[in-house]
Specification:
This protein is of the alpha+beta class. α1 crosses α2 and α5 packs across α6. It is globular, with a radius of gyration of 20 Å. It contains six helices and eleven strands. The N terminus is likely disordered. One of its GO terms (cellular component) is nucleus. It holds the Pfam family RWD.
Length: 243
């Protein structure tokens, strides 16, 4: 990093490589200028990349500043770097892959069209009651349908809705203080896996509402997926969680 006199604060220059959905490495050159009264004041952020257009770099900068506002009064540079590594593919609107399949949507086709589906795996919920209410509220606010599913220690969130709402949910899930740590202090969700994010196929049935359900056996959980026309999704992602 570069150090400037106290009246100017500190400037960090950081380069990170992000692996994109189409197997293209994107090198981001980020510059954070931290004013003297940081973190009570937002940092100035500059974004450059040889792989992105000027407009895309501006989009990345704007989204980083949006996230920075959520962390005001607390150290944020590390969190912002982690956030953009996880969300760059949404910010620059690259064509998306369909689960593990190698086929991609045509560049001429808008990834925003149609209904999308997201399958998430959570490692745990310490403050379960509060966590569940928060997920229910987000799903309601974003008009998402689906299931929050519990099977023993396995916790899955299956969502269907507009692409933009799915993206907004992911941002909320990863950046909000939704749970508590081992000492009971509020914390963000750090143990989450995106198992699948894809456009809903014609053979899949739409969920009419969002429900929280608990299952006593794997067979019961499988039947939930089967009834929704998601047998392949289940066999691909759920059994490995039991190992």
């Amino acid at each position: 990093f570069l150090y400037f006199p106290e009246t100017h604060g500190i400037t960090f220059r950081i380069q990170i490589t992000v692996k994109e959905l189409l197997d293209t490495d994107v090198l981001l050159k980020l510059l954070f200028h931290l004013p003297v009264n940081y973190p009570s004041t937002l940092p100035d952020i500059s974004v450059n990349s040889d792989q992105l257009t000027r407009a895309q770099c501006k989009d990345v900068k704007d989204k980083l500043l949006e996230q920075a506002k959520k962390h005001l009064s607390e150290p944020m540079v590390h969190d912002l770097i982690l956030w953009i590594q996880q969300h760059l593919k949404y910010v620059i609107k690259q064509p998306a892959t369909v689960c593990n399949e190698k086929t991609t949507l045509s560049k001429g086709t808008s990834t925003e069209d149609g209904i999308w589906m997201l399958l998430l795996h959570l490692d745990h919920m310490r403050a379960k009651a509060k966590y569940v209410k928060t997920v229910e509220k987000w799903a309601s606010d974003l008009r998402l349908t689906g299931r929050l599913m519990f099977l023993g220690k396995i916790i899955l969130i299956l969502l269907q809705g507009d692409r933009s709402s799915i993206k907004e949910y992911l941002i909320l899930q990863k950046t909000s203080k939704v749970d508590v740590d081992s000492s009971g202090k509020k914390c963000r969700e750090k143990m989450i896996s995106v198992l699948c994010e894809t456009k809903v196929q014609s053979q899949c049935k739409r969920f009419q509402m969002f429900e929280v359900k608990e299952y006593s056996t794997l067979d019961e959980l499988q039947k939930e997926f089967d009834a929704a026309g998601l047998a392949t999704l289940f066999s691909e992602f759920v059994p490995p969680l039991l190992k």
